[in-house]
Each structure stands twice: as structure tokens, then as C-alpha cells.
Amino acid sequence: MLHGAGGTVMHELVRNYIVKYFGGSGNAEVPLEALDDAAVIGDVVLKSDSHAVKPIFFPGGDIGRLAVSGTVNDIAVLGAEPYALTCGFVLEEGLALNDFERILASMQKTCQEAGVSIVTGDTKVIERGNLGGCIINTSGIGRRTSALEENFGVVKKFRRDFSARWILDSNLKDGDKIILSGTIGDHGLAVLSAQEGLSFGSSIKSDVQPLNRLIQRLLGNVGGIVAMKDPTRGGLADALNEFSEKSKTGILIHEEKIPIKENVRAACEMLGLDPLEVGNEGKIIIGVVKEKAEEILEMLRKIEEGKEAEIIGETTKDFKGVAMQTVVGGKRIIARPIGDPVPRIC
Ligand code: MG
Q1: Does the domain spanning 37-144 belong to CATH 3.30.1330.10?
Q2: CA 90 to ligand 1 centroid distance, Å
């Protein structure tokens, strides 16, 4: 199960097996081996994502909302606007038709929120087993927007040698600020409570939501963004390590700045989980030139999805990797987690 949990074990599987056979794939501008959130071929951003969350309904969301949001967000964090999705269903024998319909209605609603449509797909049914009802694959395409061009115009005012055409994990430079769009841990804890029948389930709700419209507003109205990521499996800890490794820069975050809801913090303490390693489905981490960080924060806080945003840290050349200034005054290394502590959260 750790091979699917978004930490070092999964990254090794991807590098040592998948990239070994499919890497070096010729004409992609952002290829498979970049291991970014999505690929770029020509001016098309392409993403494929299978969703196997268990259970299929959980506080604050369901597998259908997750499938649409997950794919939309991975395209959006490259700076692209997603516009069409494919949808492949693998249904388990015994899945109630009214549950299937609930999932479809939820997907329809989420597509409307994101402004995307499902244009092709496939349906299979397999014998009863351990699927938990269904698995959904959504793939999607996205395109460049004028907001993305405007964003890079702003970046180049402050960093004249900047030449990237997309928002990539590898674009950070010393001195950039790191912004988190809201609280962490909500999704993982909501799914865990549904899996285990834990009583806090009623108060902790998943944050699953599409963020493409929010991202386009930030790019077009403020700008200065160089890197972005949705901290899903492996949480904030895994995503920041991806940034640090690919950009070859240290990242220092400040514990007191990291937004965590009180009930999530309490549940994590009770269960012995590190909220930094728990997956999210409705948050983004933004790397921005320092001159625009306050403006990005201000704009985020005016929008519902970003109202609890904080500047949580900055890049640095003082050390390699990721470290956290703790509330008690020390520094703690934030290593890449072995895997997300909650299984099958997406
Ligand atoms: Mg992602």
C-alpha cells in the first residue's frame, strides 16, 4: 500500500519502474521525467489521474468531486486553464445505481464549478472484491491563457533572467516566498474518520474543491507566481521537498504560520499523525517572487477558497532540503515522508 501513498516509496516505484520505461519521451516540453503535476506537449497541458478513495462517500465530498477536482487542480497548478476531461469508470459488481447516480450528479456539479466538461470516457464492471464500489480515472487537457502571460510579465520585472513558460516545481530561486492557500490535513482526516468510523468525523470535513478559477485570478490580477503545487498524498512535507529538490534550493517554513484547524490538530495529536504529511485536495502551495507575496496573500484572503491563506516561509541558500522553525524556537528538518499515513485518500 505504501507504493501508492505519495512518499519516498511511491517516488522510487515511479522513478525505478515507470520512468525507466516511459521516460525520455521525445517531444514533450514538460516531459514525464520532470514528474511535475502534469505534462506539456506543444501548448497543451495533459494529465491523467485515477481515483480510488475509500470509502466513496466521506464528510465534505465523494469520489466524483475528488476525481474532477484532482485532475483540474493538477492542470491548473502549471498555470493552464483546464477545459475538457475524459472519464473512465471501473464499477464493482453490487454498486447501487442510486450511489452511482449520486456520484455522477456530484461530478456534474463540480464540472460546472470548474467550467470544464466531460467529453469522452469508458465504463467497465468487474466482479465483487475489494474495490469499495468504484474507481474513476479522469484525464484532462488545459491551455495557455492571457493571465499566465501577464503573470510572467510581472515575474520578469523582478527576475530578468526568468525564461520558464509554465509554472513548474523547478522554478524557485533564493528569496522567493512560499504561500499556503489554507488549512492542512482536513481531507486526510475526513477520509480516515469515514474509514475507521471515528467520532470526530462529523466535525472535520474534506476540503476537496477545484481551484482553477482562483489560480487564474491570482495569475491575471496580481502575478509574480513561479511555482505551484497541490499538496495531496504526502501532504505539505512531500510537496515542499519536491519544490526543494527540483529547484535545488532550501526552504524554511515557520510553524506558527501554518494554518491548521483546531479539530484537525487535536485529531492528529490523538492519532499520532503529523498534519504536515496528511493529504489535502483543495489547497495550493504557491512560490512567488518576494515583491508580490503580500499582494497575492491579500487577494487570496478576499476569496472564499483562500481566506485562511498565510505566507508560511521562504526559499534560502543557507541549507539544502526543507526545515521548519518551530514555535519553541528550534529548527526541525522536514523530510520527505515514507508515505501518507492515511491509505486510499484519493
Ligand atoms: Mg499535484
Answers
A1: yes
A2: 22
